[in-house]
Structure formats: C-alpha cells, structure tokens
Amino acid sequence: MRLNLTPEQQQVVDAVTSLLERHAGKDRAMQLVETGAYDLDLDARLIESGFHDLALMEGCGPLEAALAAYEVARNVGVSAFGGMALVAPMVLGEASAQPTLMATTQTGPVRLGGGDSVVLALDGDQVLAVDATVEDWDPVNRNRSGFPVARLKAQAWVRARRFGPGSAARLRDWWRVEIAITTAGLMRGALDLTVAYVVQRKQFGRPIGSFQAVQHRLARLAILTEGARWLALESAWAGARPDLAATAAAFATGAADHIVRECHQFHGAIGVTREYPLHLWTQRLLQVQQEMGGVAGHRRAAADLVFQDKAVLKLSVAPAV
Amino acid sequence: MEFGWSAEDEAYRDELRAFIQDALPAGWRGYDQTDRPAYKAAAERFSRGMAERGWLTQNWPTEYGGGDCSAWRQCILTEELTPIGEPRGSQYMNVNWIGPAFMRFGTEEQKRYYLRRIAAGDIFWCQGFSEPDAGSDLASLRTRAVRVGDEYVVNGSKIWTSHVGVADYCFLLARTGEPDSRARGITVLIVPMDHPGFTRRNIASLAGDESHYEMFFDDMRVPVEWRLGEENQGWEVVRWALQYERVGTAQYQRAALQLSDVVGKAQDNGAFEDPEIRSRIGEAWATCRAARLLTYKVYDLREEGSPPTADSNLARVASTDALKGVAQLSRDVLGEEALEHDQAVDVIRNGGLAIAAGATEIQLDRIALDFLGLPRSR
After folding, report:
1. What ipTM was estimated for this complex?
2. Domain B7-123 sits in which CATH superfamily?
3. N vs C: which end of chain B shows fewer Cβ within 10 Å?
C-alpha cells in the first residue's frame, strides 16, 4: 500500500500535464465547443508522446493510463483519450491510435462521435467494434456545450467485428473505470475554477470564499472530488475488478451532481454564460453521468457485485495482471 | 502508487482475525460498559493478549516497546477492531496518539515510564479537553493551572469526557497563560485519576450510561514533572495529536460492517429486490470505500514521516458521513421493525462521531483553509 506517486508515475503526470498546458485547457476547449469539433491535434500529440500506449507499456499499466486520463479530463481535452489509452488496450488487447468511443446500444448517442473513430458497443455478452468514418454518423442536435455527440448509422454496423463471449463484461468494467476517472478529472477542474473564482470575487467588501456558508460547501466538494479520484485510480490499478469499477463509477457520477450544482451556484450569473468556461466541465460531467445506466445503474451494479451471495466485507485488492 | 497489501500484511490480518475469534465470543459487538470492573478487566485481558504477541504497538520504534513495523499495521489493526466494537476499550487511543505524543514531546523519564506500560496493555486514558464553555472553541478553555514552586495548582472542570469510568490517567489541558492567551497559554498535564482534588460525575447519556462524565479539579496539586511538553506548548501537542485521533478508529469499516448487516436484513425481508433500496446500498457502499481510501492517504503520510495535513479532516468527515448514511438506510430497510430497536444507537452513537475530535464544522473549516486555501472568514 502506497498512495503517493512513484518518481516514474510523477514523470508521467508531469509530462502529460505539460503537454496539456500547451495543447488543451479551457481556451482551446472554448474554441472547439463553438463548432463541436473533436481535437485531432491534441490526440496526435498525445500519441506522438506515447501516452495512449501507457497501459501496455513496459513498467507501466492501466493505473498510469488512468493518471494521464485524469489530467486530460481536468484540462478539458476534447479527446477520447480514456477510450484509447484505457478501454481499447484493456478490452481489445492493443492501444488505439484512433479516437475510441463506447456505446451501450447500436442506436444510441455516442460521446465524442462524429468523426473517424473506433466504436465499441455492448451486444449481449459480446462486443461489436466498428471502424467508423465521418459519413457513418448522424449528428445529434446539440446545444454548443459539453462533448460533441452523434449516432452511428445502421450501415456502419454491417462492417462490425465481433468479439467473443465475455468481452462485453470487460467492456462494461473498463468503461466504468473510464467514466470514473474522467468524471473525477472533470470534477477537479470545475472545483479548481470555482475556488479561484470565490477567492477573487468580492461582495460585501470581502471575497465570497471567505464566507463560512460558502467554505463548508466547497470543503464537502473537496471530499467528494478526492474520494472519486482515489476510487477511480484504485479500480484501474486492480484491473477493473467488477465491484471496484462499479463502486468507483457509482461514487463519481453521484458526486458529479453536487459539483455541477454547487459550482454553478457559487459562480452566480457569470457561470451561466457561454463566455465563461465553467460549462466546459459541468456539461461534460452531466453527459458522462448518463452513460451506461447512469448513477443508479452503477450503484445497483455495485450492490449486486459486492453483496451477490451474502454480505461480505472485501478489503483486499489484487493488482491488475 | 499501489493499492495492494503485502503478503506479510495479509498474513498478519489473518492471524489477527484468528486471535479475535479465539478471544471473543462469536458475533461479539462491544462491551457492556455499565459493569465497569468487568469491562475494564476484559479490555485489559484482550489488550495484554495482543501485547504478548507484540501487536499492540508494533509500528512503534523498538526502543519504546514497538516492533518497528509500518503504520499500515496499525491501520489493519483498527480495521479489524473498530467495526466489532473495539475490544481494547479506551486503550485504542494509547497506541494511536497518546504514545506518539509522549515520544514527540515527553521527557526521557516520561517515555520510560509510560511507553512501556502502554505497549504492555496496562493503561487506560481519558481526554480532559472540553469544558462547559469550550467545545468547538477549545482554545478558550479556562481550567486554570497556577505554578506555585514545583507544582501547578489546578482549578476548574471538564465535561462530556468519555472513558472516565475506567481511566487510570487523564490527559489534561489547562490554562497556564493569561486568561485571554487562547492557544498560546495552554499546557498538558498528565494526572492520575485517583489524585487528591480530582472528582467526577457521571452524566446520563443517550450514547450509553458510561459515555459521558464531568470532572472537577479543586486545588489539585500537580508536580511540574507531570507536565507533557513545555509550559504553554499544549496547543501544539493537542493539534498534532488530534490529527491522528481523527483517523485513529476505522469508522469507514464500522460503517461497512453495519451495511453488510443491513444488506443481510434486506435480503431476508425482500427489500433487496427493491431497485431503489439496492441503489442506495450501492451508494452507501461507495461512500464507505471512498472514506477508506481517504483515510489510507493519512496513513501513507504517516508512514513517510510527513507531518499531518488536512487529509485527516477529509477522511474524518467522509467516515462520519458514511456512518450516517448507513444508519439512515438501516432504518428505511427495517421499516416498522426499527421501532423495536433503541433509536439512539443509530442517531446518537453514529452521529456522535461527527461531534467528537472536532465537530464536522471544525473539520470543514480546516479543509477550506488548509486544503482549498480559502481566505479566513474573519
């Protein structure tokens, strides 16, 4: 048990953070959100540095990929990095240099859909994978905030590759890890922006962040944000053990509600505007929250997986193999 | 970063579980504290049994009767003992913060005298902190200790104190500075409970009849050698100690054990089939697990020898929230059957932890200032 980063892990975090500072962040995301474009440039840079390959790299693993995915989300990268670096390698056995997206059904809306990409869909106990091109997508009527969303046309699924029985369970588990780590990163980004705001915003002659009525609520958000991060990282480290993945997704998506509501509340009117970047984090949080059964779905999955036979207490966690 | 236990730690947990199974009746869930002598004897027997195996203070340095093990051993220990009702009784605090406070602030003589006895499972403590007018605002305490020659003359009172009925010593905070000196004028005194000038009164409590006491000091004369740390250094001692006290008991694991009892009930009475109840069970479980990892962060810092941070406040609030969430769920799963139970058990005993060791509001203050870096409210 060791919760701080090894020097190698710190290097990964520092390197990806430095890349994201230059090529992601709120200004970049604000430009892209206007047109609903996907950030192919960011993907190219992440791939060039090998970050998409962390999960299978010698000396690294899914935990390192999750650490990087957390930073991508925190810096509002318009990238399917979690799918590429975490889900693809752990479910398909190879890293993906294409945006890798996840779908619960063949007809549903897909986060970050719309361009050339690999789409993994649940189909009974199997996984369907499609190499989609721009022509394969029907854009979803969107409101210029959050991640771009699109539906795959039926024509695309004709070309789908099918993975064997059991593959769907792995996709579900790793997708939950991806949901958890993406949500945790987005929560942290929204909280950081809000803390910076309440420190500089003055009313009644003092920063609003000096009022205890504000401080205690922000402190609670800090507990949720940190809790979500730890659970997500643990589930990645443990190879998406099903109960841990469901628990991490349940906690993160449940906490997201509080983060979204409170961060908007503390920002007041400016947080409602498109000119101010808060919506970059909050709208994404609400989107990710709805995927794969949503909060209640993850919670029920956790309850079923943890307590399926009889009530047991699990403290031991085995590493990913 | 890695989240697994070493094989040695796993083996220790197994041995510990076997010891507990052997030492306590099946399904044991805490002492009846109303029979004080029997309670104390049983807690002592259990603690000494652990001491014989070197388990009580194994993460202490060997020179103080420890085994030089990692802080994680103490984590495992409390994860196994807190949920079932703490068979060490109030000795749980000895290894957690009282011993370390002596190591850090004590004289060589004090270390020799107290640390060996703590490691042997021989001493019970109580914390003389809160006063009628000094609860959350602990630094305003008024119990006075006036230096007269080689003694302090102590006058005043303490209240809401736990474990008084079985304690051998009181870890007493008294004012040695000017009345308005607040945190700058507090001193720690170690006082035997049978010392002349020291009286006590039991306070009937919803949390259990032996849960709360009041203590009075009437011209109690305390030798200067019984002081821990320097005069007026008490606040530093107590702030340091409280950061450990806050995570000293594995409340997240107590919540998880209670939740597993609730789930057993829900599986029996059919409530588990209700999707809403199942969702809330998953939510409660996730809350316990988050509190667990937030607490592990504190052990990790301790293991590295880093000073305590606001992480202990995060862990404390997360743990007390987990307990409250499980208690609420428990009542809803039980429905009318809950009428048969003492409601105080859920609401007061579990909720009470959000009051002890700094009320939740104090913890949130610390998180706002120390973790988020928000400006002071005044």
Report:
1. 0.96
2. Acyl-CoA dehydrogenase/oxidase, N-terminal domain (1.10.540.10)
3. C
